[in-house]
Amino acid sequence: MNILTLMETFSSVVETGSFTAAAEKLGLSKSFVSKQVSILEQDLGARLLYRTTRKLSLSDEGGQFYNHCKIIMEEAENARAEVMDSQTAPRGKIRITMPQSLIISGFGQLLIDFQLQYPEIELDVIASGRVEDLVKEGIDIALRVGQLEDSSLISRRLADCTFQVVASPKYIERRGEPSQPTDLTQHNCLIYGDSKINRGWPFRSQSGESIIVKAKGNMRSNDGSLVVDALLNGLGIGFGPSFLFRKHVEEGRLQLLLSDYYQSPSAISALYPLNRNLSRRIRMLIDYLSERLSGGLSAYLLSGLLENYFGCSEHFE
Is residue 313 one of the residues assigned to a domain? Predict the structure, then answer.
């Protein structure tokens, strides 16, 4: 008898708690279901269930085998659903989280473009840079910078990125321009976000030496747009992802500082749980972002959003 059929029958017995209930669920006789489980036990050479007149219980081997059966049954159902789903327009909800800075810099427009292309897909976008428990929070995809150490997450690299230091011409005229990272301790530094990186701005010397500067200033915020406005008004020096500054640098309203000391590029990645089977719509969104970011961005991002972004494994709001 087909092993998959035997596994399905065994799984039904475990999940319903009895041969009678499993038989009703499968549309078979109780004796036939019992016989199938016995055949499976003989084939495996191990007892899977302990039977009494009042209840069934799993043996250690039965519990281990059931875990495998459950995964295989889910994969089979997903394969069936995927083929059926491929015959229709993609639909359903995608719950995605990303830092606010990504949204205001252009990634939000990418999501809008995706939804215009696939109107039956519902996007639930959470603006957050904290490291969530994706499974517990019910999140399908997290867009993050750097590589997470959590082994329960799979990371797909979307684009390279680095970090920049900027200030307005009026601030530089008033306070002078730092010539090396340690000079920042003599300046008013506007702190973006609340991650570890902002308690120590990382740089790399031309010889490859790591330099950490304890930045201090009179403003801290996880709102990137507020920090940029403060920079434009000449309040201080900022350190953050380049997409926040790109437009203003191009227009001459902000100037790049200490560019010889930037860290090596890291990555913007899409993260999702290791054991989660990605639905068609989720794979489509990840593929869409990857293609748009690696194959040439539209005009609002082309001149620097992703080639200069973020240089460490911390996360920004």
Answer: no
- The model carries a pTM of 0.58
263 neighbors 223 (Cβ within 8 angstroms) = no
- Residue 247: which CATH number? 3.40.190.290
**Each residue's pLDDT tens digit in the chain (317 positions)?**
688 899 999 999 999 999 999 999 999 999 999 999 999 999 999 999 998 877 889 999 999 999 999 888 888 877 777 776 666 778 888 999 888 777 777 778 889 999 999 998 999 998 876 666 777 788 888 888 655 555 667 888 887 777 889 999 999 999 999 999 999 999 999 988 755 556 689 899 888 889 999 989 999 887 778 889 999 999 999 998 777 788 899 999 999 999 999 887 777 888 887 766 678 888 899 999 988 876 544 333 433 443 333 333 344 44
What 3-state DSSP class applies to 36? Answer: helix
Domain assignment present for residue 307? The answer is no
**CB atoms near residue 124 (< 10 Å):** 12
Judge if 251 and 169 occupy the same domain.
Answer: yes
Residue with tokens 């995927």: 82
Give the integer Cα–Cα distance in Å for 211 and 225.
27
Q: In this structure, what token pair is assigned to residue 50?
A: 């302990």
Please state, in angstroms and rounded to a whole number, the distance separating the CA atoms of residues 21 and 109: 51
Report the distance separating Cα 184 and Cα 261, nearest Å: 13
User: Of the residues 39, 65, 85, which one is the last residue of a structural domain?
Assistant: 85
Give yes or no for a contact between 106 and 301, defined as CB atoms under 8 angstroms apart.
yes
Alpha-carbon gap, residue 40 to 31, rounded angstroms: 14
**With contact defined as beta carbons under 8 Å apart, do 238 and 201 qualify?**
no
Q: Which of 24, 55, 85 is the last residue of a domain?
A: 85
Using DSSP bridges, classify how beta strands 201-204 and 210-213 pair: parallel, antiparallel or unpaired. antiparallel
Range of the domain at 64: 3-85
